[in-house]
Amino acid sequence: MPLFQNLPPEIATMIWAVLPVAEIRASIPVALEVYQMSVASAIFWSLVGNLATTALLVILIGPISKYLSEKSKFFKLIFDWVFERTRKKFYNKYSRYGDVALVLFVAVPLPTTGCWAGVAAAWLFGIKPKKAFVLISIGVLISAMIVTLITLGILKIV
After folding, report:
1. Residues 65-74: tens digit of each pLDDT
2. Spacing of C-alpha 154 from chain mean position
3. What is the sign, positive or negative, of the torsion defined by CA atoms of 65, 71, 75, 77?
4. How far apart are CA 156 and CA 136, in angstroms?
5. Three-state SS for 135?
């Protein structure tokens, strides 16, 4: 029995697209193979779930991290450490490739990429929320195309 079996396939697909590790990488194949949705429906409902998540995360990541940092020394230490480490590790790539780096990071459907990681990266590099949403959305659309083509067997992974 598939997860979310008591829900309509459209809602279940959206939920798959919201999950941090699953996102588009799982929602489209599950929609097509398990729920037997049409390609258009699978893509549509996956994008609705994933892009809604992106919008919420882009809006909330700054205020939530600020609040937690102010209220907890533990969270402040974590945020400071992650921020410094990520900046040192990825600054050269981002400064070299700019916005394209974020789009590609989200677009390539691999584990630890997608809208959740893209929002974190955008926040860490100080990309304004509206711009981050646009760049991440472009990456999500590309990822949806790639995942759909792979699921349909049109695109082969070597």
Report:
1. 889 989 999 9
2. 23
3. positive
4. 25
5. helix
Helix/strand/coil percent split, the chain, to 5: 75, 0, 25
48 pLDDT more than 70: yes
* Residue range 108-122, pLDDT digits in tens: 998 888 999 899 889
Question: What is the overall mean pLDDT for the chain?
Answer: 91
Other beta carbons within 10 Å of 88 = 9
Taking residue 95's Cβ as centre, other Cβ atoms within 10 Å add up to: 10
Domain ranges of the chain: 9-151
Q: Of 12, 54, 46, 15, whose CA–CA distance to 28 is shortest?
A: 46
- Long-range (24+ apart) CB contacts under 8 A made by 90-98 are 90/121, 90/125, 91/125, 94/121, 94/125
Residues 6+ apart with CB under 8 A from 94: 101, 102, 121, 125
Output the furthest CA–CA distance in the chain (Å, rounded): 51
Mean pLDDT of 93-107: 88
